[in-house]
Write a structure and sequence with these properties.
Strand order of the largest sheet: 5-4-3-8-7-6
Oligomer: single chain
Radius of gyration: 23 Å
Shape: elongated
Order of helices and strands: HHHEEHEEHEHHHEEEHH
CATH topology of the largest domain: Beta-Lactamase
Number of strands: 8
CATH superfamily of the largest domain: GAF domain
Structural class: alpha+beta
Number of helices: 10
Distance between the termini: 40 Å
Largest sheet: 6 strands, antiparallel
Length: 254
Amino acid sequence: MGDKSGYIVPMIDRALEIINYMYENGSVGISQISQDLDLPKATIYRILFTLSKWDFVEKDRETEKYFLGKSFIKYGSRVKSHTDIVTIAAPFIDDLAEKVGETVNLGVPYDEYVLTIYNAVGEDFYLVSKLIPISPLNCSAMGKLYLTYYPEEKLRDYFKNNKAKARTINSITDLDEFLKIREKILEEGVSYDNEEYEYGLTCIGAPILDCKNNIIATISISGPTSRLKYKGMDYLKNNLIATRKEIEKQCEYF
């Protein structure tokens, strides 16, 4: 791979070094950091001032020592939740992929996309193998589920501001058209990608909900349209829903 030290941004590198030091030592003052890390006090002050702006560090006004801030709780809980859902869902996803012989995916929201954070591969299919792990909300089965649970204003904003792009002639880019589909999704408990992301590729998705009916993740089955239809969409749907319910049971106190 070669030496990539030239890619390192010095100030960011120092900031992360300070964060790691604070994690290991608790509340510390600028003089202590300067002595132990051999960094100028002025540099440390600028870094801590910037980190405090984003609540990554806080200052005790009495002792004038710094400690890690609330933002680590916020971001840490997000990372932990994603990690936990993978740990919980992975065995069930593996079983489902083996049973139906198709690729099964686990997705979470990522900006205006859905990010696949785990999958179990079924029978080989070149379209599935070449897919990137990020998919648009409007033309993916898992993405439509997140749109379905969007608040009305956020949903209208998504379509109004041209965030829904067309990838095939089947892609849904119109709000009114999606609202009709949303009714079916809520009624059936599943969503479909009918060759809306790639021609020849079909997906069926289901939401993983918590005890308050909030969507915490999504799962989907992906495969070639002809093969999924041959196996039976109802068969796949029923197995997908059964797996979703098993995962939700494990997430009862998630």
